Every structure is written in structure tokens, then in C-alpha cells.
Amino acid sequence: MAKVILSKHKRAKQWAVFSRLWHLYDAKWQNPFDSADLIAKYLSGKNKPIFHTLSDCGDHVVVINTAEIAMPDTEWRYRIYRHHTMYAGGETFTPAWEVQNKDPTKVLWKAVYRACGTSLLRTTRMERLHLFPDNVIPDDIKINLCSQIRQLRPVPKRLSEYTKEELDKFPKLYEWPEDYVKV
Question: Which Pfam families does the entry mention (predicted)?
Fold first, then answer.
């Protein structure tokens, strides 16, 4: 059998396939359930060409702005999380908005946990998930980041974020008369 000699460039590419990368995802104004499916894909390694269901080749995912997630329609009120202490009468049902107020990372964590499936590797995949309620990341994690996962939805600009020139250029539907008095 002939020995295959790889150039330095091809060898580095091969090593990069097997390395664990650190990805950044901004959860601001994103649906946590759609985001969880995307994040679970990176945690399990489904984005790599060497993926196999029995192999543990997933990457680390750092998620920022989990306090600013957006759920569709009336999900904040009607999505209920169940918890049981395993004692008699220890079952509680908590709406999503209460869970988010107690811990701003918990709703997204639960969504990713569910999206990871029932595999035996779910706990090791969840260990590679790093959630932060705002955009402040510790320096020891920040130096590892090497790529960014694109958001699923564009984040709209707030009215206060527009400049005076942009507001003046915006087309008006109605021009108020000069003698109009606003109350």
C-alpha cells in the first residue's frame, strides 16, 4: 500500500475538520425554537463533512443577548414549562415569561436541550453551549471565537437609532398643515 504524503496546506485543512470550533450567535430578536434547531446542528457537528450520529464531533456555540429573545404571537403567556420535584405535590407549571424573568438564559437553554434530541451524547453537547444574557463575554471565551452563525431574522432598527437625515429622507404619507396644533 502506497503512503500518502500531504502538503502542509492539505494537512492543516484535514486537522481543521477534526478540531472543535467556537461559533458566536446573537439571539437578539430571534425565535428561540428556530434558533435552537440551528444551534443544535452546530453542537452535534452536522455542519461538518465528517458527521456521524455515533461520533462526537460538534463545536462550541456561544450565544449572546439571550435576554432579548422574541417569541411569536402569544407564546410568552401560553407556553408552560413543567417541573416536578419528585415529591408528592411537587409539580409546578410556570409560564415562559416567568422563567425568562428569573433566568434570562433558561428559555433558550430548554429549547436547545429539546432540539438536541434524546441521544446519549446530549449532555456532552449541552456542555459546549455557552449562554450569556447580554453581549458581555468573558475574555477567556472571547479569544476562542473563530466564526459567527448568521441570524435567522434581521433585527429591526429602533426609531431612536435612526439619524436626523434618515428621518428627514423618509417618505411622508401626510404633511401636517402649518396651523395644525398638536395636543
Answer: Ribosomal_L13
Sequence-distant contacts of 34-41: CB under 8 A, at least 24 apart: 34/152, 35/63, 35/69, 35/108, 35/111, 35/152, 36/108, 36/111, 36/112, 36/114, 36/115, 37/115, 38/149, 38/152, 39/63, 39/112, 39/115, 39/129, 39/149, 40/112, 40/115, 40/116, 40/117, 40/125
pLDDT at 25: 98
Extract the C-alpha cell encoding 7. Answer: 502538503
Beta bridge partners of 64: 26
Contacts of residues 135-138 at CB distance under 8 Å and 24 or more positions apart, as own/partner, are 135/26, 135/64, 135/65, 137/62, 137/64
Residues of the chain with pLDDT under 50: none
Tell me what pLDDT residue 3 has: 67
Amino acid at 8: K
